[in-house]
């Protein structure tokens, strides 16, 4: 069990409001990702759920029980940190067992729990080592193991992959997804990387400046964004935003994803010149400079040959275009 | 920086300056030590000469060990130094932890107030301190000295340690909180071991002035039972006659314990001083 409910949760440091009334429901067993640019308050929100920051207003509930004033250790949560935060003076086994030891669990049970977690993460050979003797990836696996051992109601991840290199990041991401399937536990995961959010989440919460911009499943956010911020934040490369007026449309802004722009040589609906080409093998990204809309990105699948400064025309797939008003809100 | 490390000319120049400074700094100590092994006549005849078999004389050490209770003086100095050091490190580290870790009203102000002690010499308050000690019946006790030296050492300790504690990973402390460690356990088991180099730095900077101090032992605890080594050595300095052999021998002996303590802390000390430069 581990359903999390946030009701009008707020946080302020002095006169600065960091979290401005967040309402959120995370169901039992759900993988929920908080995503947003740096400084949007996603880490602060996570730390409030953990009890590391006190809540200035509103209620934080786990399984319907208000935990606002409960000490972190009593909340039945476990947290994995970006910097691993392993205890340098303890062996891997003791690192993983410390919370249970603090809770007064018998030694045999602790050994059983740590062995089980170690087996899940293939840490068996490292159990007697100190954190200083481990590589970054191993340390993060130990940190995840330390969280598993506690069998918490809620797993909290604070940018756990940011300190790993690209290859390890993908590998650990898959491992976390696998753990979520095996454990069936509720997980809350903070990241600034929308790829991590898209690949891991059942539910994505997009935050900006302490407010929730949109909540939904990854593909809902991708295919049905509420505003220009979410539209621009989810998806890589970023959505193109064009001036509707110049296209003879009613709305203020037209959003179109790079894969939904058609590129043709010579003149087209929107004339422009190629400013840069990125060939990635599986796809080709063409950056086109236009007079009215600025720099637009076109994503072509497969390999394509375009020269810099070549004159090209762009065509909009109107069925895939999004329309926004002057305040950035979606017009449906 | 890397230039200096690679160019031999610069390296030689830097070492020459450092060696010169070392020679200047150590020269008085050297003179004290060599003269402590010479006869009185030889000290005055040629103070800079090394002891030779002809003028080698341990009379100074014999006097020191025979007269007065020098062993007791040593013990007093050691008690006061170690005691003060313990309290300075304990309370200094605790205050530093509170200032660096907790957000509360007046945090910055409190930090400034504690740092003020670095700039204002405690000796300005001697008269008031003496009155305080007389009123509380602590005159001629080692407790009086420990209290004063603790007060004297805390500002620098707080100042240095709070900077280092700020650099200890917040995630680590938070991980401890989530695992159910008390704030005291976090402080003693997680944070203190990580700031050990800084603690050694503070220990050395605190210890030496305490060991060498003459002022407060003379004013607060001049009795025979509570004399410190520096005060004890003054016995041999008279208004008309000074027993130089004994003074020099006493001073030479007084170097030893502090040297031992320094060697204990020095490895950590060097790491503490260079922490900012290397990391």
TrEMBL record, chain A:
Pfam families: ABC_tran, TOBE_2. Keywords: ATP-binding, Nucleotide-binding, Transport. It comes from the Bacteria. SUPFAM superfamilies: MOP-like, P-loop containing nucleoside triphosphate hydrolases. One of its GO terms (molecular function) is ATP binding. The keyword Nucleotide-binding applies. This is Sugar ABC transporter ATP-binding protein. It comes from Gemmobacter aquaticus.
Automatic annotation (TrEMBL), chain B:
The chain crosses the membrane at residues 12-34, 73-99, 111-134, 146-165, 186-211, 246-265. The keyword Transmembrane helix applies. SUPFAM superfamilies: MetI-like. GO terms for cellular component: plasma membrane. Residues 74-265 form the ABC transmembrane type-1 domain. It comes from the Bacteria. It is a multi-pass membrane protein. InterPro entries: BP-dep_ABC_trans_perm, MetI-like, MetI-like_sf. It is found in: Cell membrane. One of its GO terms (biological process) is transmembrane transport. It holds the Pfam family BPD_transp_1. PROSITE patterns: ABC_TM1 (PS50928). Keywords: Cell membrane, Membrane, Transmembrane, Transmembrane helix, Transport. The keyword Transport applies. Belongs to the binding-protein-dependent transport system permease family. PANTHER family: DIACETYLCHITOBIOSE UPTAKE SYSTEM PERMEASE PROTEIN NGCG, MALTOSE TRANSPORT SYSTEM PERMEASE-RELATED. This is Sugar ABC transporter permease.
